[in-house]
Amino acid sequence: EIEADPAMIRAYAAEPVVREPGPDFDKLRREASAVKDKICRLTDQLEDLAGSPAARHVIVRIEELDGRLRELERQQVDADARMRERKAEEKTLEEKAGEIAELVRGLDSFTPEERNRILRDIVRSCTWDGEILRLEL
Q1: How far apart are CA 75 and CA 120, in angstroms?
Q2: What is the mean pLDDT of each run of 10 residues along the chain (137 residues)?
Q3: What is the torsional sign of CA 45, 50, 53, 58?
Q4: pTM (2 decimals)?
Q5: Which of 6, 11, 72, 114 could link 32 by a cystine bridge, Cβ 3.0 to 4.6 Å?
Q6: Following CA atoms 106, 111, 112, 117 in sequence, which dihedral angle do they give, to the nearest 10 degrees?
Q7: Do 28 and 58 touch, CB atoms closer than 8 A?
Q8: Phi first, then psi: what are they for 133, rounded to 5°?
Q9: Count of beta carbons in the 10 Å neighbourhood of residue 70
Q10: 72, burial (CB in 10 Å: exposed 0-12, middle 13-18, buried 19+)
Q11: 83-86 contacts, C-beta under 8 A, 24 or more apart
Q12: Which residues are 134's β-sheet partners?
């Protein structure tokens, strides 16, 4: 009956998927650029401090900044992957409704465990009044 009620499927498919906001890719890029600039400036200073005891402090700071830069680059890769994943998940309402209908049609071909997992993802509540079973998607 779920498949026979396209309005029910469309109502379920139309619900927006709530996701926590990902990191700001542009902010990460700007911060990484600023860290690279600092590293370049410190590298230039290091050339002037060759042989000086202060050189080791500059080297330590460059290493700290390099660690931060690697972390920012990792976060950029993660942010980019999340953005691509979100775009791939954004489908038209009809595509989502079609996928749900197809899933319902093929439900009998799944194992009981798979059916339970799928139905837990789709069904919000289930009410039995002794005669009628009501499902809220």
Answers
A1: 33
A2: 63 62 84 96 90 90 96 90 74 71 77 82 83 80
A3: positive
A4: 0.51
A5: 72
A6: -70
A7: no
A8: -100, 120
A9: 12
A10: buried
A11: 83/22, 83/25, 86/19, 86/22
A12: 127
